[in-house]
Design a protein that fits this description.
This is Methionine ABC transporter ATP-binding protein. It holds the Pfam family ABC_tran. It comes from Pseudidiomarina taiwanensis. One of its GO terms (molecular function) is ATP hydrolysis activity. With 236 residues, this protein is an alpha/beta fold. It has a single domain, classed as Rossmann fold (3-Layer(aba) Sandwich), CATH 3.40.50.300. Helix content is 36%, strand content 21%. It contains 9 helices and 9 strands. The strands form 2 sheets. The chain has a 5-stranded parallel β-sheet, sandwiched between helices. Helix 3 packs across helix 5, helix 3 packs parallel to helix 7 and helix 7 runs parallel beside helix 8. It binds adenosine-5'-triphosphate. Adenosine-5'-triphosphate binds next to helix 1. The site of adenosine-5'-triphosphate has 11 residues, from helix 1.
Length: 236
């Protein structure tokens, strides 16, 4: 049986109206539990690839499989459900709701994700307790957890965004340049905590950056420009 969390086959994607293929990826597999760094310069298509993996945009032709589901065969409703239940997304700008507390932002992650709530119930923890525990592990004390997101520092917001992605153990954590605003010490500490939590709940991690110095932290580095046949001269 395949141990893949993500597989891509013959993926070709161009933005509407564009003359050029943005992505042409013959094959990529990410195994369950892997920690993969996806690297590429600005504009190379990293975020585009993530949006395809998360089912936000569709790739025709090509096949994308996430956690055993062929995204091309899912209805919009099924895609939304898969995304909510099995993909935790850490955005570059964090996308927190400013008027909710830190813990409120984290809890929101599972509101429309019954499988994530069920996994917490199986562990015998409430959503609130699990959110608080994750925030604690990621370095936010009780006081900070009760603060409105808009009053948190950038580093604290980033931890809240990570806790929100991790709550309820989705199969795949996608992190889109979440460390770009941090200094080196904070960045290293954040990565350590993120890895610990991914390992603890066996979530696969796909981490995107253009920062080459992060490579040693990961079990595998994928260079998008090597993977993407459209990066050089392929045209539609
Ligand atoms: N919604 C969109 N519509 C049309 N073109 C887009 C859209 N989003 C991105 N692009 C184009 O796709 C290309 C790749 O962009 P993308 O954001 O995926 O790159 P990236 O590698 O994530 O860059 P960065 O590191 O700067 O975030 C760019 O040329 C961009 O202009």
């Amino acid at each position: 049986m395949s141990n893949a969390c993500v597989t891509l086959n013959q993926l070709k994607f161009s933005w509407p109206g564009a003359q050029r293929l943005q992505l042409d990826i013959p094959q990529l597999q990410i195994d369950t539990g892997e920690r993969v760094l996806l690297r590429g310069p600005s504009g190379s298509g990293k975020s585009t690839l993530l949006s395809l993996l998360a089912g936000i945009h569709k790739s025709k032709p090509g096949q994308i499989n996430v956690h055993g589901h062929d995204l091309g065969k899912l209805s919009q409703r099924q895609l939304d459900r898969l995304r909510a239940n099995e993909i935790g997304y850490i955005f570059q700008q964090f996308n927190l709701l400013p008027y909710l507390t830190a813990v409120g932002n984290v809890e929101l992650a599972v509101k429309f994700a019954p499988a994530r709530r069920a996994r917490l119930a199986q562990r015998g923890v409430s959503v609130r307790a699990a959110a608080q525990q994750l925030l604690q592990h990621l370095g936010l004390d009780h006081n900070s957890q009760q603060q409105l997101a808009q009053h948190l520092s950038v580093g604290q917001q980033q931890r809240v965004a990570a806790a929100r992605a991790l709550l309820g153990a989705p199969a795949l954590i996608i992190a889109d340049e979440p460390t770009s605003a941090l200094d080196e010490a904070h960045r290293d500490n954040f990565l350590k905590l993120l890895f610990q939590e991914c390992d603890a709940q066996q979530s696969t991690l796909l981490f995107v950056t253009h920062d080459a110095t992060l490579a040693p932290y990961f079990s595998r580095v994928v260079e998008l420009e090597q993977l993407n046949q459209a990066a050089e001269s392929t045209h539609v």
